[in-house]
Amino acid sequence: MSNENLAGFRCWVVDLGGPPDRPPDAVVVLCHGFGAPGDDLVPLAREVGRFIPDDRKVRFYFPVGPLGLDQFGLPGGRAWWQIDMERLLNATATRNLDELHRTLPDGLETLRPRFGELMDAIRQDSGCPAERFVIGGFSQGAMLATDYVLHCDAAPASLIIFSGALIAEDDWIRAAESCPKLDVLQSHGRDDTVLPFASAEALREMLKRSGHEVDFEPFDGGHTISGGGLQGFGQRIAAVAGSA
Questions:
Q1: Is 0.90 topped by the overall pTM?
Q2: Into how many domains does the chain fold?
């Protein structure tokens, strides 16, 4: 595992399988959630590595959000954009989900081109084309991954949405209706008290109405990543690597 600087972002990089000088057969980019330290998802590389064929190599990139949250009482915590947690939790508690769905978060439009530059740097670093990428994230990272994939010209092999939600609804609908057809794995807990299950369902229905293939994996639990979600994630990585 190495820690690299790509397009101004810190990235944890993990290679599984194959000799060090061999280019990867598939690339995985996974973005952490709000308040995480930036490397909390790194162990998932080993977790899903058991699905990867022995003769294939996969490179995992775990980029670190640009915002530090020490001043907000989260030492070491990182974020992709700032969140008004009180407003979010109030919307969840009052079931005022339209506000959540329609809001374009402050900072997302500024982050969008920067994250695109990061993805360009990852393609150059890995030597892999976009169609051999699996791109996703957890919570806020899942929303960032969704926003990027909906707005890019070349579709990845799969989009992975762990405990994400519908945001920027008007913008996402326009983008979803015009972007290449996507294969999506979406997983969400029925008892999620941070990002409501109904918001995940709204995202699923929006994607399906726009013509995308969505494998929706609900589970009994809260704001986390399920075993079933990890299995589907690993199977998609294996399929991409195996077809290279």
A1: yes
A2: 1
